[in-house]
Amino acid sequence: MDLRHVPGARDRGWYLALMAPNVKGPNYAWLDPSRLYCHPQGLQDCVADLLQPFRGDAIDLVAGIDAMGFILGAAAAAVLQKGFLAIRKAGHLCVETLAQPYTDYSGRQKLMEIRTDVVAPGLRVLLVDQWVETGGTMRAAIELVERLGG
């Protein structure tokens, strides 16, 4: 699909055709969404559809999970006119952090970190990731936000 082309009829999910199929074997994601992210209207419509279930919800901050959740999370934060918080894999933040162990999709034990100076008790945080396979990273992110009172 031409990245400049926008279909006349933009049915919900039309942009999914922009994702490239896996050509590198079983150790890679099923689909590569990076081409979708390069298409201006595709990215806008994707983010709008992702945010649809949260219309009317009080959201104070958007957090994206390292690393691909940063793309959709930052885009969602911009649309909502909210701040964006990066939840990182351990060792990437040079400020005071709170860490949470988790098991990734491959079964490896890892640590995720969140800075401690942004999430305050009662803050409503929308967590975003590119996709959720086993739920391990999302569970860890939820636990980090909740441990800080969000």
From TrEMBL:
- Pfam families xrefs: Pribosyltran (PF00156)
InterPro entries, A to Z = Adenine_PRTase, PRTase-like, PRTase_dom
Q: Which GO terms describe its molecular function?
A: adenine phosphoribosyltransferase activity
Q: Give the EC number.
A: 2.4.2.7
Q: Quaternary structure?
A: Homodimer.
Q: What is this protein called?
A: adenine phosphoribosyltransferase
Which subcellular locations apply to this protein? Cytoplasm
Q: Which UniProt keywords apply?
A: Cytoplasm, Glycosyltransferase, Membrane, Purine salvage, Transferase, Transmembrane, Transmembrane helix
Its UniProt pathway annotation is:
Purine metabolism; AMP biosynthesis via salvage pathway; AMP from adenine: step 1/1
Name a biological process GO annotation: purine ribonucleoside salvage
Q: Where is the Phosphoribosyltransferase domain?
A: 57-149
Q: What superkingdom does the record give? A: Eukaryota
Transmembrane region(s): 61-80
Indicate the family of this protein. Answer: Belongs to the purine/pyrimidine phosphoribosyltransferase family.
- SUPFAM superfamilies given for it? PRTase-like
What Gene Ontology cellular component terms go with this record? Answer: cytoplasm
Query: Which PANTHER family does the record cross-reference, listed alphabetically?
Result: ADENINE PHOSPHORIBOSYLTRANSFERASE (PTHR11776), PHOSPHORIBOSYLTRANSFERASE DOMAIN-CONTAINING PROTEIN (PTHR11776:SF7)
Q: Which reaction does it catalyse?
A: AMP + diphosphate = 5-phospho-alpha-D-ribose 1-diphosphate + adenine
